[in-house]
Structure formats: structure tokens, C-alpha cells
Fold each of these.
Amino acid sequence: MGKILNYIAFFAAAAILIVAVQACNTGDCLDNKSSVPLAGFYSSSAKSSQSLDSLTVFGIGAPGDSLILDNESSVSKVYLPLRSSATTSKFVLQYNKSSFNGVNDTLTVNYTPYPYFVSAECGAMYNFDLKDFSCTTHRVDSVVFTATKFTNVDVESIKIFMKE
Amino acid sequence: MMRSLFFSILSVLILSSSAAFAQERHISPVTPTTNKILPPEKKKGGFFHSFVTGDTVPSDSALRADSLQRAKRVIYPLMSGITIGVNVFDPILQAFKQSYGGVDFSAEISLWNRLFPTVEIGMGRANSSPEDMNFTYKTSLTPYAKIGANYNFLYSKIPDYKAMFGFRLGYSKFTYDITNITPTAGYWNETGTFDITNQHSHALWGELLFAVRAKIIGNVSMGWSVRYRMMFKCKDNYNSSPWYIPGYGARGSRVYGTFSIFYTLPLSKSHWPKFPPPDNSDGSNPPLPPPEKTAK
């Protein structure tokens, strides 16, 4: 009887081990499931984060003229998804505030897309190697890219400095 | 006058005869220490042992020290056994729909029933298409190897039961493919499928483990272990990071387990310490008796 109890305890411990291992090995994706550059707006004079009002952002050639932002207020950051089937993406920053009515800026990014498998949790996606970029300067003072590779890591990689 | 002289002569005769009788008496030779009350034998370190343990009864500490010395004398031969095993933990998990894993075999030598140098060789594979994900990950059957050792804390007991700490160093060189990748259409509504194939990598990792083992029948035993893994080196590729590593498992998981069946071939059994047959009538383990035979 005692021996049987020992065996039961032994196999119970093994069963607990199986359940514990299974529980420990299930994880979630801690970053994004696609590689989308994140841009932040900054004041060129104060060099600090700035929120823009009445801002519309869209990509040139987007299907159905879909918008990324539609006349949003208090915008300090925006995701700018790159085209994986092309090596250039263009984004329009449209300022709808009355004092800037009709003024747009266009950010052009040239890059090389490549497929990348990150993990079972995050999956596979396209990453992008930055080649060069340009931007009009109606309201934008300057643009700084803080990374040369865009991955699914959720960090800001583009700083857009705005004129006062 | 004559009467007093007679008594004097008689007294001298009596005294001289008694002296002569006393000289003729037999006396058994004895050592000078016979019948002495000897004090308890002082043991080395007795005071120190009492001081360290806080034991205020010297006789108890002396008895304990004596039993410890006897326990220390339970020494198994240098080569006391060879054990082979098969780890069936992954096949069990695969029965529960784990999409990767393999099977590995182990071989170990028992040194004094205390130290167990171990080699583990196995084959691992993966074929995973996770739900709600956009890929199929495949690693064909790939070999791996681990070397290391276990330390048995129950080295002075019968070898039917073991509780061990150990370590392993593992290595695997493998190839993998990720196919049927369908990225999310996203803002640009781009659809399509692509593959990332023929990815080569290798990995070196370490494992710390705690293991328990118990005899089932004859020379067959079963045991499980819990392992904490540390990746030392894993080669990433330009298009991918390996997810499944043969012998390691899923790259993101640090804790793992094994459940194994072992067969032990005893060596130099005639030099093993002798233990009485276990009395399991009350379900308890047999007490540790004094060893009758020890290795040279």
C-alpha cells in the first residue's frame, strides 16, 4: 500500500511538471506583429514633443484614398506603414487648422524591404532597410531618422521637427 | 618465671608460623588498572562539535559524531554502475498537441553512487502552424548532443532512489524553413505569400537541473527532472531567428522538463555496501544500518 502511494506521488509530481512546463512556455508577442515605423512630432525650437491639431495623414497611392489620420487633434505620434511591394513610400501631412489651411508637407522614404521571421508569437513580416529620405519644409523644419532598419520593435524611429 | 618464659616462646612460635603460612599463599597476578573506573573516551573535536551545534549534552554529540562517521564510511565502488535511459517527455507532450519535440537517449556512469557523468543524444523536429498566425515552421529531424553531470545527494543510501542536481551543455546544428507566410494586408492592402527557406543555424546552451529517480522493478527505474536553460549562442540569419532548436525546444521558453525510463547495469556489486531488504509493510523506507562491507 505504501509503495503504491509512493508511485502515485511520483506520477503526480510528473503530471504537475507537465502542466507547469506547458504553462511556462506559452508566451505572447511583446512587440508589434508587423514592422511599422513610428514617427513623433517635436518643436524645432524647444526640441521637445509637440502635439498637432487638425492633422490629416495619408499615403500617396493608398487604396481607396484611405487615411492614416483624419483631421485628428492632439497628435504627437503617428505610425507610417511602408509598402512592402515597393521601395518608396510617400506620406502627406495635411494641416487643416485655419491658420495653415492648404499647407501640406510630403515625406518620402526610400528603402529595401525584406521578409523576416521573428518568432512563433510575433510571426513573420517585412522589415525595411532605410536607404534615404526627403521631406518638404512648409511646416516641417527637419526630419531625423534614429534607425536605419525598421523592425517590429515598438520604438520611435522618426523625429519630425516642426516650425513654430 | 617459667610460666612467663613459656608464653613468650609460644607467642614467638605462633607469629613465626603465621608468617611462614602467609609466605606460602598463592596470589593471582593482576594489572594495576584492574577494577579502575575509566572516564569516557574523549573524541576529537568533541568540544568544537558541541560548540557549533549548541548541544549541551556531550554524550549525545559524541553519539551523533559516531553515527556520522559510520555514515561516511558508506562508500560505493568507483565504477558502481552504467545507466541508459530514454526521455519520453516530448512524445507525451506531442500527444497533447505540442507541435515540436523529439526523443533523446542518455548514458551515464555511476562514480561512487555520487557523481554521474552523463551524455545525452537525441533527435528533434518541428512542424508548427500556430492558430491565428501566418506561417508554417519546419525543422526536419536533427540530432543534438548534451554532456554534463549529476550529483546524487542520496549517495549513502541504497541506489534505488536518487535526488540529484546537475548541469548540461548542449549543442545542435540545424536547418529550418518557414513557409506559407501571409503578411497582414495592412494599410496598403498588399496581399501575397512568401517563403523563407534553407535557413542554417547552430546553438550552444546550458541547463541546470534538479532530478528525482526511483526504482520501479529490477534494474528499471523512472525519473523526472526540471531544467532551467540558458542560451549562450544562437546564430540568427538575415531573414529569420530560429524559433525551435533541437534539444532546447522553443527558444522563448526557459523552463523545461524530462520524464525518463532508465535501465541500470550494476558494476562491482560485490563491493557495494550491504543493506537489509526493505521492510515496506508499513510503507516506510528501511532505516540506514551500519555498513558491513566497504570498498577498499
Amino acid sequence: MAVRIQAEPFDTGVEIARLTAGSGAGAVVTFTGLCRADGETGTITAMTLEHFPGMAEEELSRLEAEARKRWPLLDCLVIHRHGRLVPGDTIVLVITLSAHRDAAFGAANFLMDYLKTSAPFWKKEESAGGEQWVAAKDSDNAARGRWTQK
Amino acid sequence: MKLRYFAWVRERIGRAEEDIALPADIVTVADLVAWLKTRGEEYEAAFQHEKIVRAAIDRAHVKPEANIAGASEIAFFPPMTGG
């Protein structure tokens, strides 16, 4: 069980190998989020991710604990980067391990939906027109809402 | 009380954090926002659409009606856009 906030890039292959070694898992689901060139504010050259140190770790840990209550996970890792990133760079990594695939898929989906709306990170995009904060999307709130509907 | 600001809330207020002695009649986060808005244009700009701005007490999300008694740090920030 782990949550990491870091400026440095991560190596998805290394993280999967480290987590699965000796875990007994039958299913591993990995989600990697990347910085896109076609940003929310147009074609971007870079973005800066601001975060709330301390709260970011605590909030992701709360989400991870909730995911573990809902699904029988063998292990779980969330890494979120901060600082200046360019298109193609990795932003976020979620890895979930379980005996069977349903739990791993479900938990990874849940973690990403909640992370996007409750982890204290903010994107500012840089383009030819200057810098602009990214606005929160209704579709992200809707995606989160599906976990609380009957 | 230590107040912290992030993203465009921080930019509009012009500082990342500050220590402020709060009047005794401030009970909730909403009271605090209303009082901050009287402190100058920069606060008015930051809380112009105050329903959009989110708050956290001691690094946990709270609603505007949350009581601030016992808090050591209150943060204000826009809706989150990570991931």
C-alpha cells in the first residue's frame, strides 16, 4: 500500500515488477495518465501541476483505504507528479493487484475518478496565447458520481 | 489562524499563505469567506464566485457550513484538476 507525490518521472515497468513480485496476484491493472498536447485551453507547450503538499498525500491515502474497503485488493500504488511537464510526460500512475480482474479494474477506475475530483492538484497550461488554469470538468464530477448511485 | 491559498485563488490574493487574527464571531468557513471579502479587492476577486472555491480544514475537505473551531490551518483553492 503506497502513495507517492513526486516531481521525478516514474518507470511503469519497474513499479509493476516491484509490486507484483511475490504478491500472489492473478490480475494487475495499470493506468498511466499522460500530458496531452491538445490541452483543455488549446495546443499547449507545457503544463505546471501545483499541489497542496501534505494534503495531497493524505487525500490519496484516504482514497486508497476506501478502494481497499470496496474491493479485495492484494496491493495498490498511486503515484502523482507535480511541477512542470511537457506533452508526452507521465502525470499519474495507478496500479491495482487482485486475485481476479474485476476487483483490479474496479478499484483502478474508482481511484482515478476520485483522484481527479478530490486530490488537491491544479493544472496550469502554457500555450502560444499565454498561461491559463484548467477548469474542472462536469464529466469528471459525473464519473465520480457513478460510484455513489444505486 | 493560518490561511493557505492555491492555484488561481493564490494568484488573485497575491500570496500563498498568511497568519490572520480572526474576529470571534466567525463560526463557519462561509463566515470566514464573507469576512475575507471585506479585506480588499484581491479577496473579492478570489471569492467572486465563492460557491466555486473549495476549502480544507487541517488538510481535509470541508463544506462552507463547516465549523472552524479548533482548526489550525484553513486552505482555499479552486476545484481540483489533477490526474
